[in-house]
Amino acid sequence: MHFALYCFCAAASKEGLVFEQPGSPSLSAHLSHSLIIFSAFRRTRSLHGPCPVTTFGPKACMLQNPKTIMHIQDPASQRLTWNKPPKSVLVIKKIRDASLLQPFKELCVYLTEENNMIVYVEKKVLEDPAIANDENFGPVKKKFCTFREDYDDISNQIDFIICLGGDGTLLYASSLFQGSVPPVMAFHLGSLGFLTPFNFENFQSQVTQVIEGNAALVLRSRLKVKVVKEHREKTTVQNGIEENGVVSANLEKEVGKQIMQYQVLNEVVVDRGPSSYLSNVDVFLDGHLITTVQGDGVIVSTPTGSTAYAAAAGASMIHPNVPAIMITPICPHSLSFRPIVVPAGVELKIMLSPDARNTAWVSFDGRKRQEICHGDSISITTSCYPLPSICFRDPVSDWFESLAECLHWNVRKKQNNFAVEEEEF
């Protein structure tokens, strides 16, 4: 079976990421078009290897599970296509960066006037004096649709996303969509740019290719995180003084549980916060205690996040097409505690150890930082809503070029060769 024959359509399933096959009714109208595009990129085998045979010898076989978690595609077959021509685009610009003002204006003029697109922009972007006081930009600005983070839901109104900035803009775009994410085109206008493969110099032709559905995609898996906290209501005695005249401390009363959910692109970081003590957290995998982390903390990352904080903490770097979750300790109190990679789809659970001296703190892609106390828990698994990132060339070439350009991977001085002595005659 050729993996290239799978159409790129992720179905939201509780069990995981499932790719629908070309025969499905919703995609049948686009099958012929997809096959024409895929024919130039079809391989004789997948980069991940062929589908494993599930019969072993004359009588043994593996029990079939009807709840399939995911089908792995050949990265070369992952191409963008549209069910209908895109009409709306979300433009995300890095805030407080004067160097992005001109590219932002040029892009918005191109999208609105030459492509007749509906442009969504965050309200605080337009509050920049350089944009608000620009009279020449006024007619374009009036066509914008604006929104506010955490107030307005635009998840069903955006066809694709364009990011102007660094890797942080892509992480921010991911946080805006807690469900299905539109395709993301990221321009490198920031400091690092590991996740932003496009240069802005020829943005017109590149944006046109995306609108026409001529682009490669890389599926960046995300983590579905659920934080369950013991809800404590603080109550104080009137005037803070008891009947005997002794000052009363605040009282905590458990009145239920508070549940928060997040979609994380890079990593979940649990650390010791401002405490001088080591963090002491228990890590469970599918309900089984696998280890206790004593140290500065632990990083649970996606393959995309493996090249971020996890790499700085000594972890391996994983290609975003590899279905995996990485667990990396931060300065562990054990020399044998090395980073490990576990299969995508497993459920990790992190809790404070019963004998922990202090609380812990958790953050999600560097945001929403909060304290974790005894009785609280953090559940992490692979999300069925990946982030489809548009490639400049293809998933493999873009990734290795980022390793070379941004991280200077394996850059060293070359070893001198031996001098060839002339043969004596």
Folded structure, characterized:
- With 425 residues, this protein is an alpha+beta fold.
- 16% of the residues lie in helices and 30% in strands.
- It has 2 domains: 79-221 and 388-407, Probable inorganic polyphosphate/atp-NAD kinase, domain 1 (Rossmann fold); 223-232 and 257-385, Tumour Suppressor Smad4.
- The chain contains 9 helices and 23 strands.
- The protein is globular.
- The N and C termini lie far apart (62 Å).
- The model is unreliable at 1-48 and 235-254 (pLDDT under 50).
How are the SSEs ordered, and which strands pair?
Elements: E1 10-11, E2 18-19, H1 31-39, E3 55-56, E4 60-61, E5 88-93, H2 101-114, E6 118-122, H3 123-126, H4 129-132, H5 138-141, E7 145-147, E8 160-165, H6 167-175, E9 184-188, H7 203-211, E10 217-220, E11 223-235, E12 251-264, E13 267-271, E14 279-285, E15 288-295, E16 297-301, H8 309-312, E17 324-330, E18 340-343, E19 348-352, E20 360-364, E21 367-372, E22 377-382, E23 387-390, H9 395-406
Parallel strand pairs: 5-6, 5-8, 6-7, 8-9
Antiparallel strand pairs: 1-2, 3-4, 10-23, 11-12, 11-22, 13-16, 13-20, 14-15, 14-19, 16-17, 17-18, 19-22, 20-21
